[in-house]
Amino acid sequence: MKFANPEFLWGILAVPFLAMLFVAAWRRRAQMTQRFASMAMLARIATTVNPWLRVIKLTFVLSALVFLFLALARPQWGRKVEWVERKGLDILLVQDISLSMLAQDIQPSRLVRSKHEISGFLENLKGDRVGLVAFSGEARILCPLTLDYGAARIFLNELEPGYLMPGTDIAGAIAKGLQAFQGAKSAAQYQVMILLTDGEEHDPKALVEAQKATERGITIYTIGIGSRDGVPIPVPDKNGGTQYKKDKFGNIVTTHLEEATLQQIAANTGGRYYYAGPGEFQLQKVLEDIATREKQAVQGQQMEQYQDRFQWPLAVAVLLLTLESLFADRARRKQKTAGRFV
Length: 342
Known about the structure:
The protein is an alpha/beta fold. About 40% of the residues lie in helices and about 25% in strands. The chain has a six-stranded mixed beta sheet with strand order 5-4-3-6-7-12, with helices on both faces. Strands 1-2-13 form a three-stranded antiparallel beta sheet, covered by helices on one side.
């Protein structure tokens, strides 16, 4: 036997203290009653209390409390073997970690906000496998598709610009995502790629790779991060401060969201494009969108489950309270018959 909620068993320890409180209250009441009138007078004006019946009633109440706490603790015994099937999608998160993601048009920065939103996204997944690809000038699979969301979150927290070659290679990111799906052993209609980037790339190769995803039946959702207006890129200096990235002529380099390619990638693969500007982020809307998609049975296993037996102590508690209500601790007063006046 085991208890599903054993913390409620601590409540049983309070029952003896309740018993002492009841006894102390009875004694206090008896003392106050004796001050009110003598025993002979009380016998004439009040009904007699049977102390033994009162003890029995108290025993019933306290015993009922014990069984109520046992019911709340949910005792379980007896096992039943069930086949549990999990349904879900294979979701690959492709995160841009290029230097431009340090821009602060989205506070505290584009990258930090992206990581925060992905972390919340992981918390809302139920049964879906998730993987993580990071890219800048090159792409790398950091976390293969897994049900271990905690492991994916560990890799996510380590993402920083400078981890990979500089640049923004969206084509390489999509190609690496397609590679990650190859060993997934799932049908293409259940594979979803979510690309998070500021889109600063005009290389047509990205559309070529997106076409490969279309041919395989893989859907790509794109999220464009950042302001549509140019903003500077802060970079740390050697003294621990912050300066802005400059070109070889000493001019401050600005970064702005380039949406056209991202919109076309999403449209060609059957996905959707979402704009994540300074005032909003769209990753949860992607989750709502993919939640409506058909999901595959990706894993099944036999599980032994204990059977809940809280009904038994609950029934005993109800029975004890019913019996307590049937006992009267006061004797009925005998009505004296008055004689007739002649």
